[in-house]
Design brief:
Protein name: Peptide MFS transporter
Strand order of the largest sheet: 5-6-7-8
CATH architecture of the largest domain: Up-down Bundle
Number of domains: 3
Number of helices: 16
CATH topology of the largest domain: Growth Hormone, Chain: A
GO cellular component, one term: membrane
InterPro entries: Dipep/tripep_permease (IPR005279), MFS_trans_sf (IPR036259), POT_fam (IPR000109), PTR2_symporter_CS (IPR018456)
Membrane topology: Multi-pass membrane protein
Structural class: alpha+beta
Shape: globular
CATH superfamily of the largest domain: MFS general substrate transporter like domains
Region (Disordered): 1-22
CATH class of the largest domain: Mainly Alpha
Order of helices and strands: EEHHHEEEEEEEHHHHHHHHEEHHHHEEH
Strand content: 5-15%
Helix content: 55-70%
């Protein structure tokens, strides 16, 4: 979120202001207030669910880290990919308004289905090829850290599982004596879970992905339609609109974990479904205020909407199959790039192939059909798009490895108050809301002095800040307590750095695309921009998989091993991303020439 110029709202009104009654809201078309509310509730739902999802998968369904992180990465990547299709269908057939309403209903159904998770999975351990059921007292609340001992019965004896830092496991008797030591390769864990409820959970995620594709691009399109061409209030209006995203995010990431802990998993997802239905009601019963905005295009013949709605259900089934393939994908068995690619699910292969085709094919096409200047500017845009992938692959650890790290290896206390790991994700929107005005004023102040960083320098700063956030978190390991937990303040600092990084790259990226792209393919380049985020989301899941640790029943077998695994992964990712930022800084003179004065 970037604040507009201070006097932007005092510009002359355009003829496109609130055709329902001619009034304004904060100096903008009055319809913006309703669209602000709709977006706020939708983001409440999405980010509230996002805060819970990795913990729902690992604590309730008892998925191993590798599967849970892979599924989450696939889910978030598709959430950024499907809007390309949803936007196209709206432009050609449905119109933005019908698309938003349909998307809200489909997502509400998906969130509602998440309420039905069945019984928690039943954990088991496999030792030397023999299977043993694992018993463990339930946690005080669904999101609470469960430190109760895990036991198995072996040869009539009740033994407690105790993991060691090298990955091996000790089985302890009543007095704490070691009854048996099991090597890491002879011990594995799993869980029995309902096939029906597991399939229902994947269907719920599939519906959310498809509904998001209809909702996400088209609500913004309606906002843009409120302003006539040349109306200088447009940027300020989008700033207000995007504030709704952060407000909804903060509320959702606070309310949903609270409901889960005090009522149950179903309550955390039910409130999400309810607010999405509320978003639908606000759009459906808008009292004519949005008449003429986002209407369907004029079509010859029969309305295609019913067919599109039916095909959406087919699309949800396809997404379900994609998710199933992601979950079934084996862990890479070797260390070479080819072995890793071979183990990559179909979704990963498809995303990477499409992205490579775009970043190679578009510059070649530009050289053939455009002027030399246009081709060079397009090449610069593609370079920045590639670096954007790196940013999101690290930044989006918030939904996966950072939340698991918070749950397993931080104290989860601030100012004497205890919080759940899910609630830590709200640090990001809180920082964005608080410091967006500061960053905006900083850029304005530097611009007046002719010192504002160029687009590529802002990208580089973002990369180095997001990398520094992980390096800082890796340093925290030196200050762990006896339970191998570090202060939650380290995570707060990481989120602070990441959020400032987001303010340096996210608002700048879309503007960069519009400035550097050849005019007749700017829409396609916007699609490539969102494709780069989609690829980054997928790679975020893959990176989180590298931080996977051994768990039994959702509980790590050894907190020291978990801490060391997370910190090593964070340091590696942080160093690589800082290196990417430094590389981009080194390329700045070259990019400056290619961009021909665009900054």
């Amino acid at each position: 979120m970037v604040l507009p110029d201070a006097d932007a709202t005092f510009e002359p009104q355009s003829p496109h202001v609130s055709r329902s009654d001619g009034g304004t809201w904060l100096g903008h078309p009055k319809q913006l207030r309703r669209l602000f509310s709709i977006e706020m509730w939708e983001r409440f739902g999405f980010y509230g669910m996002r805060a819970l999802l990795i913990l729902y998968l690992t604590k309730h369904f008892l998925l191993p880290d590798h599967e849970a992180n892979g599924l989450l990465g696939g889910f978030l990547s598709l959430c950024y990919l499907t809007p390309l299709v949803g936007g196209w269908l709206a432009d050609r057939y449905l119109g933005s308004k019908r698309s938003v309403k349909f998307g809200a209903l489909v997502m509400a159904l998906g969130y509602f289905l998440l309420c039905f998770g069945g019984q928690q999975g039943q954990p088991y351990a496999t030792i030397g090829g023999a299977r043993y059921d694992v018993a463990q007292a339930p946690p005080a609340t669904p999101l609470a850290v469960n430190e109760a001992p895990q036991t198995i019965v072996m040869n009539g004896r009740k033994l407690t599982i105790h993991g060691l830092p090298d990955g091996s496991v000790q089985l302890l008797g009543d007095g704490g004596q070691v009854a048996k030591t099991v090597s890491a390769d002879a011990f594995s864990s799993g869980a029995d879970r309902s096939a029906f409820y597991s399939a229902l959970m994947l269907l719920a995620l599939s519906l959310i992905v498809v509904g998001n594709g209809f909702f996400k691009p088209n609500i913004s399109t309606i906002v843009g339609a409120l302003y006539a061409p040349g109306d200088r209030r447009r940027d300020a209006g989008f700033t207000i609109f995007y504030a709704g995203i952060n407000v909804g995010s903060i509320l959702g990431q606070a309310a949903c974990p609270w409901l889960v802990n005090h009522v149950g998993w179903w309550a955390g997802f039910l409130i999400v479904s309810v607010v999405l239905f509320l978003a639908y009601i606000l759009m459906q019963f808008e009292g004519g205020r949005l008449a003429g905005y986002g209407e369907p295009p004029v079509q010859q013949g029969r309305d295609r909407a019913p067919l599109i709605y039916v095909l959406t259900l087919v699309a949800a089934a396809v997404v379900w199959l994609i998710f199933q393939n992601v979950m079934d994908a084996p862990e890479p068995s070797g260390s070479t790039i080819w072995e890793y690619v071979a183990a990559t699910p179909l979704l990963g292969k498809a995303l990477l192939a499409i992205f490579l085709a775009a970043v190679i094919g578009i510059p070649i096409w530009s050289w053939r059909v455009g002027t030399r200047t246009e081709a060079q500017m397009m090449l610069a845009a593609i370079v920045l798009v590639v670096f954007n992938v790196t940013f999101w692959a690290l930044f989006e650890q918030a939904a996966s490895s950072l939340t698991l790290f918070a749950d397993r290896n931080t104290t989860l206390e601030l100012f004497g108050f205890h919080m759940s790991a899910a609630a830590t994700q709200q640090f990001n929107p809180i920082v964005v809301v608080t410091f967006a005005p500061v960053v905006s004023l900083l850029w304005l102040g530097l611009a007046k002095r002719g010192l504002e960083p160029s687009i590529q320098v802002k990208f580089a700063i973002a990369l180095m800040l997001v990398g520094l956030g992980f390096v800082v978190l890796a340093w925290s390991g030196q200050f762990h307590n006896a339970e191998f937990r570090v202060s939650l303040w380290w995570l707060v600092l990481t989120y602070f750095l990441h959020s400032i990084a987001e303010l340096c790259i996210s608002p700048v990226g879309l503007s960069m695309i519009t400035k550097l792209s050849i005019a007749r393919i700017v829409g396609m380049m916007m699609g490539v921009w969102f494709l780069s985020i989609s690829v980054g989301e997928y790679l975020a899941g893959a990176a989180a998989q590298s931080a996977s640790v051994q768990t039994v029943g959702g509980q790590v077998t050894n907190p020291e091993l978990a801490l060391n695994t997370y910190l090593h992964t964070f340091m590696t990712g942080g160093e690589l991303t800082i290196g990417a930022g430094i590389l981009l800084l080194a390329l700045t003179p070259v990019l400056k020439r290619l961009m021909h004065g665009v900054s």
